[in-house]
Design brief:
Largest sheet: 8 strands, mixed
Distance between the termini: 45 Å
Protein name: Monoglyceride lipase
Keywords: Membrane, Transmembrane, Transmembrane helix
Oligomer: single chain
Strand order of the largest sheet: 2-3-5-4-6-7-9-10
Pfam families: Hydrolase_4 (PF12146)
Organism: Sesamum alatum
Radius of gyration: 25 Å
Low-confidence stretches: 1-14, 16-20, 41-89, 287-292
Number of helices: 13
Structural class: alpha/beta
Helix content: 40-55%
Amino acid sequence: MVKKANDAATIMLTSGASGRINALLSLSALRSLWRLISAFLLILWLPFRGRRRCMPVGAAPESSDKCGGKDEKPSSTTGKVVRVPAAMVPRKSAAAAVDKEVAARRALAIKRVLEDNNDNRDTVREFSLFVTSRGDTIFTQSWAPVKVQVRGMVVLLHGLNEHSGRYNVFAKKLNANGFKVYGMDWIGHGGSDGLHAYVPSLDYAVNDMKMFLSKVLAENPGLPCFCFGHSTGGAIILKAVLDPKVRESVAGVILTSPAVGVQPSHPIFAVLAPVFAFLLPRFQLSAANKRGVAVSRDAEALVAKYSDPLVFTGSIRIRTGYEILRITAFLQQNLSKLTVPFLVLHGTADSVTDPTASQKLYNEASSTDKTINLYEGLLHDLLFEPEKEEITESIIAWLNSRMQG
């Protein structure tokens, strides 16, 4: 078993508001980026070194002195002017590849819902899609108890690089206690649109979560609604509930290992990050991967996670890393504005998100109803640790106490 755990620890681990952000912004990574940017700028400069020339097909060189004018019309003797925007070809190909990959992810997410629904008699599991104002299609799913009366709702947001389906067991335990659960795969994740694990803006996820929450509340009038968020999903929920309209509609928030504090290893990196995020937003750096940084002490849970095609195991994308830095910086400046009741749970041995930042959240939040549980020696994915039953029971107990109150 020890050998199995050690083997699992060598798997590429990329969960949560990853600690790989520091590696992403390391000196070696920045040097690699600078070389890449220099080459990119050189390629852009090459076409402008000399006089711009274009020539109709089949024309003599002297016929091309005037090129690109609005009134110029090719004659029948000189042939047609051919302009091929070569840069458009790879863009179209890349977009088609992303669309194909999204379709495969969505099909798998739907298949899992349908198969689980056929095999389960205690829960009805369904999926649905909604289109954002940006035109992106977002995959959502729900778990509803069959034999237990629904007395409340939980809207669930997963962490970075994973998806809502990973919380299937947790959702069913909430069902058994009278809570209907809704999950949303945020942009670039699971069955939703977007390049896998690429987040152009976490504000997109915040706004999508607000839209999804409105739909859930409209479908279940009168039922108290709670929000659950893990890691970066917790940061998204925290930013959403700072909106007074959202705050009024939410009865409480549960956060596991929330991404409240993620800081670069040097202040200069915070200055350079937006530049690189603008120039090379989708670029991935192998230096950003950390091996051996486990997110769970359960070897089987690690294997299940990182063999899941819907879990992204590649290098973090530059824009995604920058967006995490940006949302955590925002939260750090606004912790005192939080007034919603909340429960925060964090493992003291978490090396992905900072447990001391969760303590700061608890200390500075203005909420009069707030609870923090720090678990000695536990890692990042609390609901997939060997103590997952204890974690789940503490969450259910907190929910029950708020329902009674």
